[in-house]
Every structure is written in C-alpha cells, then in structure tokens.
Amino acid sequence: MSQALSIKLVERIIEIIRSENHEDVMDELIKDLVLRDKKLYEIIYLCTIHNTALEEPIRAELIDKIQSIDSSSCSYSTWLLCFSIAMHTGNFSLAYLFRENAKRNIYIKYRSGERNTELLCKLLSLAIEDGDDALYIEIRKVISKKEGIPSNKLADLDHLDMIFSFCNGTVSKIAEKYISNNQDYYNYISGKKIALVVPTLVETLDASEIDGSDVVVRLNYSYKGQGCDMIYKGVRTDISYYNKMTLNKLDEEFSGQAPDDLKFLVGKGKSIDRNNKYRRLYPFDNSLLNGTFNMLPNTLFDLLVFSPSEIKIFHSDMQLKPSLRVKNYYSENSILNEDELFKASVSKSFSIHDPFGQLNIIRRIVKNNSKVLADDILTLTLNMSNVEYASCLTENYRVNFNKKALEDQHIESTNIELISELRNKIKSLNEKAIHVENKLHLMESQKTSQERVIAEMKIKIKNQKIQFSKLKSSFSWKLTKPIRFVGRSLLFMRK
Length: 495
What we know:
Number of strands: 7
Number of helices: 21
Keywords: Coiled coil
Coiled coil: 419-446
Oligomer: single chain
Order of helices and strands: HHHHHHHHHHHEHEEHEEHEHHEHHHHH
Shape: elongated
Mean pLDDT: 81
Low-confidence stretches: none
C-alpha cells in the first residue's frame, strides 16, 4: 500500500505555507506538489493558516468546492497530500472527501487499463473496505498472472488475503503457517471466548461479562491491575498487546518487566520478556489504502488468525471522542496527559492511521464475521455514516487554544502559590531545625556535665575501695575480728 506522508513532512509543508507570501507559495506548491487546481490550493491554504479545525460554516462552503472538483483532474498523490494536510489540521470532514477523490482516481486508472502492481494492491485494499468481493477476486486473478512481484509485495498480498477472509467470516489457508510457528499460542486461543478490552474509562457495567470470558485481552497493560476494577472493566488480564510506545514505557519505568499475571505478551517491538511468553505481532500495517492500523484492528486480526470461537470488543468507539485513558496509561511526563495537547497530537496521528479505512474494515468484519461481536459503544460508532463520523471527529478534536492558554495561566498562578507555600514551609522547617539543633546542644552539654559527675563519683568510689583495702590489712582490723563476729551472731539471733 501507499505509505502515509510523514507527520514531519506535512508539518514542514504547513510551515512553508504559513510563512510565505500567498502567491509565491501557491506557485511553489503547484510546481513541487502537483496541486494543479487553484480552487484546491485555496482550500488547503485555508486549512493550514488556522491553528485548529475551521468553523462549520466555512467547512460547509469548502465541502461544496471539493465536491465540484473533478477527481480525475489531480493525481492520487495530490489527493493524498490534501488528505494528509486536512487530517493534520483537524479538518476531518474535508479530509474524508479528499480520500474519496483519491479512491475514485484509483478506480479510474484501473478502468483505463493501468495494471501496475502498486495500483492493483491499492485496489485490493479498496475492494476490502468497500465490500466489493467480486472486484477483489478479479484483481487477485490479474495479479496471479503477473511475474516478478517483489517479495515484500507478496507478503502484503498474504495479509490482504487474510483480512479479506476475516471480513467474510472464512478461514484463510495462509494462517496455517503462522499457527505452526506459534503452536502454544494457538492451543491457548483456539476455540476460546475472548474479551478484547480497550483501555478507556467507561461507566458501563461490563466487569462480570469480561471476567466470565475464557481469555481476557487488554491493550498496553503496563503494570498489574492497570485499568481493572470489579464494576466496569473487570479484574482479569491474560494477554496484553503492546505498541512501541508502551514497550518503551516498560523499559523506562519498569526495567523492561511486564506484569507477572500475563500468560502471553504480544508486541510490535523487541522482546520485553525473558520467559518465552513474548511473541511478535504479525504486521498487517501495509493492508490499508493509506497509512497503518491502530492497535485495536491489529490485535483483532492477530487473534482471528488463531481461531477463537468468539471475540467481543469492549469500550472502543474507534477514537470518535478523545476518551480518557485508564490511570497511568501514558508515561508521567507525556503531553498526552493534557486534554488539549492530547487532541492536537491525536489529530496529527490520524493522518498516518487513516481512521476512515479502519472504520470501514471493522464495520465489515463485525457485520459479516459471526465470531466478532461489538458492545453498545462500538455499535453506535459502526452505525454512523462515514460523513457523520468525519464530522464528529472534527468537532470532538477541535483544539481549544483559549482553554489551553487559560489552563497554562492557571498552572502558572498555581505554581506561584505553590512556590510561596513551599518557601513558607521551608522557612518553618528551618526554624524547627534550629530549635532542634539548640536542644541537641543543650542535651549534649547536660550529657557532658553528667558524665563529669559520674567520672568524679567513680574516682571517689575507687579511692574509698583503696582505703577500705588498706584498713582490712591493718592490725586493728584483725584485732577486732572476734568482736565483729559476735556482733553479727547476736544480730542474727534477734531476727
């Protein structure tokens, strides 16, 4: 599939547009980025000169303009660039239309006789998400007659075939080679009822159903009990799937050690476990028209390979809302812990994760694959049209920079108060320390005085002992010994 334009590249393009003269930038974009349509450029320019999504009336006007542009007037790469910039700036409704034009452009090329492998792979992805099984089979036959297909493309074709089978509730023969390399995992998953729990905070009473499953799978479970409770999320965790960010978090905060209550760990990166519980996630990433899958689809696909009897997805709305994650999901210093920065960051990530393609595929799987069930939260999202979904994304991820400024101001004010309070506490502690130090000096002085008295008494006792010893050896002491003996005897008789 076509790789998404990198976030850094899109940011650089936006930076150029914002910093240069309108006409000069337009000429530059037309020359270098093939934005041949002036109307199209003006739409992109409007998206980039604002820090957040455009207001609804302006978006409505731009939507009309996009729909009036002939999709064949620009190349697929041009529509992809427009899609990436619109996604990056939070204008998801516009981005969705750019993506639809990119799709139409691919269909037009195929109907005009173009048959290169890259185009055919894109068509396979489109056939999957659009539910056009006849087209998928047709394209597969065309590809089977081609020679010299690169090995990486052959691997992509295997993954596409597997996703095609997931969407139709069938089992792909290709899965057999994956199972043979992971027999222990297959034995643990095969025929089991799976609860796939997404790490968002919810108020639905699902704990009992989740814990009643044969196997409970959670995403990015970084410490024992994370995101678990007895009312909403359940308390069991048997398997966790990890993205690279959480693997790094485990390295940094937990010395590379995963929670010890896990039976298996599955991740995209290097092994984080030394007792053979870890296995690498199979890469389905190149199966989207544009960009890569998020953790939920990747986890779902991987589990389906191993033939469970059922997978029920809990607490996912396909990122429709910037939902709160469970406690300590992100690293302590991550910007994703702050609401407005979270929105801005996720908006940018959407440009490389293509939420529309993912929504289309998950919708097909839930509809056609009897093994995959959705809870009420996910069902609400899947029942939306793509246009409604795009509109909700735009509104829900609109960054409120005024709110951010007020929050920063509040934080600064709070910091000043905390610093003042801290200084007062330090002053008080210093005073207490001085008092304690003086008391210690006094005690030390008293101790020294007492030690002096004790030393003097010891000397006095020693001298008395010496004198007594001398007395015992004297003639008078010996002479009076009988009298002392009689005195002691009389004393004893009285008693």
